[in-house]
Specification:
598 residues, alpha+beta, 6-stranded antiparallel beta sheet, 45% helix, 16% strand, elongated
């Protein structure tokens, strides 16, 4: 039974090239993926690459107070917003009682994150009572309107302005959807840039005053007709002025009628809106999708809660029975109309789509804000500061210098103490460094990983962890040689003992890194992530590179014969004489046989 076992062991020992070939293939594949992705260097955090620091001051809204609970909720929502856009290493933290500091590094979608991080994202679906061009654009006729008038007309035919209007319709009895299509984009300046989703109501002929539009019929949803004061505010509203846009609908409760502004194709329009019929909190889920079946391009799909679906079906059913513009509902985000589709029939099923020449970033930005909910407080931007990478660059240079000095000391120690074995250690360190660099470069576009100063520190600490694994293995081999074994069996007998020690040591390091990553926030997580990654790579390198390489070198005379510069000289290690096997007597007794017993 012993002979077959030795045969299997010899077979396993004779093919270390397989492990070396495997890790070589992995390095080549990962490096090829890095060049193919176009990201040849790791992404850098704000302390190394620079970025933007934003200070936001909280303002109490109606029914909400500035307290720790609301501030913590706002920080959490802002964190999820920027992370949902793929901006890694963004820091969101409170400062004092009413300030939030947001640090956004340069990189993909950092501009979008900066523009939406403090947006309240309060969404309401309000019935449109009247709409018309506002400001200088009002001098030209609106789409669908005759040259004789630009005033709104509640009884205008939907076809008279169909070219500029969004449209809401059912896409089937089983899963109806609301579709908003437009010549412009369903996105507001609060998100990425001024959109052009809302549309004018236009008239085919004649004219009507805003008050006539508002009072032609009772507002959908059971609200009361707007009072004369609101109608006067609507008549005086000039949406081409930033001050008027900022004050439009300010401090209006959801159950009250309101005025609002919206933009389409670079022109502003003003809206007179009824009470909110559906609240944005009743949007269960929102996601950006690309319409591969039609020409709508990027869309935002919304799924309502059970109560929201019921309310949405009720309001669309009421609007479908009215004439334009009162068959429209305005989608109002933070006081600005981002879309105003008209309704042809009741939309049931609890699903809706908003489209209208979205870009991918704009659709994802809007869906991101709707998915993660509204902030409990309003925030005013106090300051926006551009952070340069000069200071971080100096610190990085100092850190890299310290790491280079530490690495040089490790190499000197290995050469002096382990001599020829230092070649194995240094080759393993190089392989570990290549894998670490390539994987960090790939993780940037994959999961948004960004290299910051603490992460660099984690990589430097990992040099010691990796070198420690080699030392454990080398010492086990030396122990076997001291027992009188030759190098080849010593390499194989030392591996199981060293393997257990290495695994236990790396497990403890990885566990510490995992706990640190979970319980900390911000830059410290970069240190923990890098430490955990390099610990895992240490196991990979030792198993698939260091041990197979040591097996191959044990067959070389320089190491096998114990050259004094190999680091495995038996005399220098104080080895015992070679172990010799002694044969035991075959019989049960070793003494002379008594003739009488014979």
């Amino acid at each position: 039974m012993a002979a077959p076992k030795r045969g299997r062991s010899a077979s396993a020992q004779s093919k270390p090239g397989r492990s070396l070939a495997l890790i070589l293939i992995a390095i080549v594949a990962l490096t090829g993926g890095m060049f193919a992705s176009g990201h040849k260097t790791p992404r850098l955090g704000i302390d190394l690459a620079g970025g933007t620091s934003i200070t936001l001051k909280a303002k109490a809204d109606q029914g909400s107070a500035i307290n720790k609970a609301n501030m913590d909720t706002a920080v959490d929502i802002m964190n999820r917003r920027v992370n949902g856009l793929g901006v890694s290493e963004a820091e969101v933290q409170t400062q004092g009682k009413d300030n939030i500091i947001v640090n956004i590094p340069k990189g993909t979608n950092s501009k979008e994150a900066q523009e939406q991080v403090g947006t309240t994202a309060k969404l309401y679906f309000r019935p449109v009572l009247a709409s018309e061009p506002s400001g200088p654009a009002a001098q030209s006729p609106s789409p669908g309107a005759s040259s004789g008038s630009s005033s709104p007309k509640p009884g205008a035919s939907p076809s008279s302005s169909a070219s500029a209007k969004e449209k809401a319709s059912s896409s089937g009895s089983s899963s109806p959807t609301a579709t908003a299509t437009s010549q412009g984009r369903a996105v507001t300046g609060a998100l990425t840039k001024a959109g052009s989703t809302p549309s004018p109501s236009g008239s085919a002929s004649g004219s009507a005053t805003p008050s006539a539009s508002a009072s032609a019929s009772a507002p959908p949803g059971g609200g009361a007709t707007p009072d004369p004061r609101l109608q006067a505010e609507y008549a005086a509203l000039d949406c081409s002025k930033a001050t008027d846009r900022a004050n439009a609908g300010k401090n209006v409760k959801p159950g009250q009628s309101a005025v609002a502004c919206g933009e389409i194709d670079g022109a502003w329009y003003k809206y007179l809106l009824g009470p909110a019929a559906v609240d944005g909190t009743e949007v269960k889920k929102a996601q950006a999708v690309f319409d591969t079946q039609g020409a709508s391009g990027w869309q935002v799909q919304m799924t309502f809660t059970k109560s929201g679906a019921s309310k949405f079906a009720d309001i669309t059913g009421e609007l479908a029975q009215k004439t334009q513009p009162q068959n429209e509902f305005g989608i109002v985000l933070d006081g600005e109309v981002v879309s105003s589709p008209f309704v042809q029939q009741s939309i049931t099923g609890g699903q809706a789509e908003i489209s209208g020449s979205f870009k991918q970033e704009e659709a994802q930005s809007l869906a991101n804000m709707l998915s993660y909910g509204a902030l409990p407080l309003s925030f005013q931007e106090q300051s926006v500061t551009t952070v340069t990478a000069a200071l971080g660059g100096e610190q990085l240079h100092a850190g890299l210098l310290a790491g280079a000095i530490g690495l040089a000391l490790v190499v000197i120690y290995l050469v002096v103490y382990y001599r020829g074995l230092s070649v194995v250690a240094m080759a393993s360190l190089i392989v570990s460094a290549i894998l670490t660099y390539v994987i960090m470069a790939l993780l940037g576009p994959a999961i948004g990983f960004a290299l910051n100063l603490p992460a660099v520190c984690g990589a430097i600490v990992a040099i010691g962890i990796t070198a420690d694994s080699f030392i454990v293995y080398f010492e086990r081999i030396r122990d076997e040689i001291r027992e009188g074994r030759t190098l080849r069996p010593a390499v194989e007998r030392a591996w199981p003992r060293a393997r257990r020690t290495i695994l236990v040591s790396d497990f403890v390091s990885f566990l510490a890194a995992a706990v640190l990553f979970i319980v900390t926030v911000g830059k410290v997580q970069g240190f923990a992530f890098t430490l955990g990654l390099t610990t895992v790579l240490d196991v990979v390198v030792v198993f698939f590179f260091t041990k197979p390489l040591m097996t191959l070198l044990a067959r070389r005379r320089f190491f096998a014969d114990g050259h004094k510069w190999s680091g495995l000289d038996p005399k220098g290690l104080g080895a015992k004489p070679p172990l010799r096997r002694t044969r035991r007597p075959a019989g049960p007794a070793a003494g002379p046989v008594d003739p009488k017993e014979a």
